[in-house]
Design goal:
alpha/beta, globular
Length: 199
Amino acid sequence: MKILLIGASGMIGRAVTPALSLEHDVLTASRSSGDFQVDISDPVSLRALFASTGPLDAIVSLAGGGVMAQLSSMSDDDFDRTLDTQMKGQLNVLRLGLEVVAPGGSITLTSGAAAQNPMPSTSAIAASCAAIEAFMRTAATEVEQVRLNVVSPIFVKESMALFGLPTESGLSAADTAKSYLAAVNGTMHGQVLATPDYA
């Protein structure tokens, strides 16, 4: 299968790319690296990306860009950047990606555990994650020819270590990648895949 992986340069993306490449032809895209460059917050940039890739069998979006900030200190830019990239950007990946994914293919987005587990400084991120899941579930009731799913990761151990946090409650990037493989290779449609369930 020909798969486009958006956001391949991040911690999870660096695990998902080689895992998918074992069985599939993987193209990568991100803001500043990969086979293609794209700004998913800009629909024009996304349309140009899809015009360049041509028909695809699957799209996997790992793009984030959420800003952790307390409500009392959150700037307009923090708020807009989180919603424009993490939320609207991924929703546009699904909306515009439907035009290039072949029947029988799939589109997988990424949300996060913040949608179900409130944590300080993640209000905009949590709102984005919840919106991504609701949008996908509703879109799945309208779209039959392409499977639509969302992977909801918990904290990745490697990222926790970088922040100096205890890693016991996290999941490795390699184990996190297993959920994306399941979404691409499986038959599920309209589902939110919690990464611990596939580790």
